[in-house]
Design a protein that fits this description.
Helix content is about 30%, strand content about 35%. The termini are far apart. It has one domain. The strands form four sheets. Strands 3-2-5-6 form a four-stranded antiparallel beta sheet, with no helix packed on it. The protein has a three-stranded mixed beta sheet with strand order 4-1-9, with no helix packed on it. By secondary structure, it is of the alpha+beta class. The protein has four helices and eleven strands. Helix 3 packs antiparallel against helix 4. The longest helix has 19 residues.
């Protein structure tokens, strides 16, 4: 039979092995609950808001909370604004938890609850802003005025 100190060492060793098996797969520890996302625009210097919060001008890096979608708006005077919606997808670290049975299930529940089970996609936002085009104003020669009939010009 085991001696008391042997049993205790055995329990401690088993606990350490169990922790070592489940912790590396835990996305909370390996990925965290937020993710860095870079936001660029061409041209640079566009205003960036994420979920209505102003982050400054491009290029900018921000940490976004995992487990939820985000609305990224990029605006610059003289250009059409662009909106990009991020989504989430399950990350690979979470799938490792499934291999470890009940301890893995506990880690999956934690990862799902705090969002660390997911990755934000796209992980970088790059926007090519399109310049606003203002149509030329109609210039009428002196003595002419537009008619209510399309395509006709009346002489005064």
């Amino acid at each position: 039979m085991f001696h008391k100190s042997s049993k205790r060492r055995h329990r401690v060793a088993m606990s350490a092995i169990l922790c070592a098996m489940t912790l590396p797969g835990c996305a909370t520890l390996t990925h965290g609950t937020s993710q860095s996302v870079d936001i660029w625009s061409s041209p640079d210097g566009a205003n960036v808001t994420v979920n209505g919060r102003n982050l400054g001008t491009t290029p900018v890096r921000t940490d976004l909370k995992r487990g939820q979608s985000h609305v990224v708006q990029v605006e610059k005077d003289g250009y059409l604004s662009e909106t990009v919606m991020t989504t989430t997808k399950m990350n690979k670290a979470t799938s490792w938890n499934a291999l470890f049975g009940i301890p893995g299930a506990a880690a999956i529940i934690l990862d799902l609850a705090n969002g660390s089970a997911t990755d934000i996609t796209p992980d970088a936002v790059s926007v090519d802003l399109v310049e606003k085009v203002t149509p030329p104003s109609a210039v009428m020669p002196a003595g002419y005025e537009p008619s209510s009939e399309q395509g006709r010009v009346r002489l005064n």
